[in-house]
């Protein structure tokens, strides 16, 4: 990990973010807890995630240019999201980061950076 570069650049820019999204969503679709939250046609979701992560990690503001301010918590309020959902989402992301060959230091940094937003989306108690 080069501390002088953005996460976006450390992950390999547009190509790296695209690879991450493509490694991530098959895991989500195979996860029995997360899969029901996503539409069958995952392609539009993948494109939005690519745009959001590009922006979130310091690359071009693709998401904001296309959709306005991300307001990610508001966009996720219609879905019941528990702490377990957040942890499973992060587990899928960790697997995707490992699959695309992200080194340990960068992987841990990215997961830490995503942990706040993942837990911020929680809107439902466990039961």
Protein architecture, described:
This protein is an all-alpha fold and 127 residues long. The chain has a single domain (7-120), classed as Globin-like (Orthogonal Bundle). Helices cover 64% and strands 0% of the residues. The protein is globular, with a radius of gyration of 14 Å. The mean pLDDT is 89. It comes from Paenibacillus ihbetae. Heme binds at residue 119.
Task: Give a short overview.
The chain is mainly alpha-helical and 127 residues long. Helices cover 64% and strands 0% of the residues. The protein has a single domain (7-120), classed as Globin-like (Orthogonal Bundle), CATH 1.10.490.10.
Can you lay out the helices and strands and say which pair or pack?
Layout lengths: L6 H4 L2 H18 L12 H14 L5 H6 L4 H5 L6 H17 L4 H17 L7
By DSSP (H or I, 4+ residues per run), the number of helices equals: 7
Q: Termini separation (Å)? A: 40 Å
Please write the string of helix (H) and strand (E) elements: HHHHHHH
Number of domains: 1
Shape: globular
CATH superfamily: Globins
Percent of residues in β-strands: under 5%
Question: How many DSSP E strands?
Answer: 0
How would you state the average pLDDT, rounded?
Answer: 89
CATH class, anyone?
Mainly Alpha
The assigned structural class equals: mainly alpha
Major sheet size, sense and barrel closure: none
Low-confidence stretches: none
Specify Rg, calculated over alpha carbons.
14 Å
Indicate the CATH architecture: Orthogonal Bundle
Please give the share of residues in helix: 55-70%
CATH topology descriptor: Globin-like
């Amino acid at each position: 990990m080069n501390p002088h570069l953005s996460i976006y650049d450390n992950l390999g820019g547009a190509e790296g973010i695209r690879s991450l999204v493509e490694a991530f969503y098959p895991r989500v679709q195979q996860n029995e807890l997360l899969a029901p939250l996503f539409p069958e046609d995952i392609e539009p979701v993948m494109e939005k995630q690519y745009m959001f992560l590009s922006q979130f990690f310091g690359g071009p503001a693709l998401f904001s240019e296309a959709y306005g301010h991300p307001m990610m918590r508001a966009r996720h309020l219609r879905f019941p999201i528990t702490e377990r959902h957040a942890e499973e989402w992060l587990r899928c992301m960790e697997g995707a980061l490992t699959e695309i060959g992200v080194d340990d230091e960068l992987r841990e940094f990215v997961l830490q950076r995503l942990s706040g937003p993942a837990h911020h989306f929680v809107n439902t108690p466990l039961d």
